[in-house]
Each structure stands twice: as C-alpha cells, then as structure tokens.
Amino acid sequence: MTETDTSLGYEQARDELIEVVRKLEAGGTSLEESLALWERGEELATVCRHWLEGARARLDSALAAREAAAERQEGGRGE
User: What pTM did the predictor assign?
Assistant: First the structure.
C-alpha cells in the first residue's frame, strides 16, 4: 500500500474501487491506462481487505469476550 492508501477509509477505498472497475468495464482506454487502473484497483482492494480484516478481528474479539463472560457467569452458578 502507498502512504496515501493508509489514510483512506473503507468507504472511500470501496467507492474509488467501484469507479475503477466501472472504467475498466467500459473500455475505451489505452493499454497503459488500463494497466494503471488495474494497479490502482489492486491497491484499493488491499486497503478494503485490510479494513475488513480489522473489522473481523474486532468482531471475533468481542464475541470471544462475550462467550468468556457467559462461561464465567455459568460457572458462578455452581452448575
């Protein structure tokens, strides 16, 4: 990722990626322009993946904490 990409939020990266895909699908660009768009799309996909992996880690952590609390609560009942 480039320095600029690390400052992009998920929604910004996703929206730009959608625009890149739209341009590639529309065609009419030179080979050089298409390659540049593809490279930018790969960078944006990496940014999105980074954000989604971070979100997944946060969800997993919250679920694990919730399960641990439930287990402690059940253990305190003497069952």
Answer: 0.76
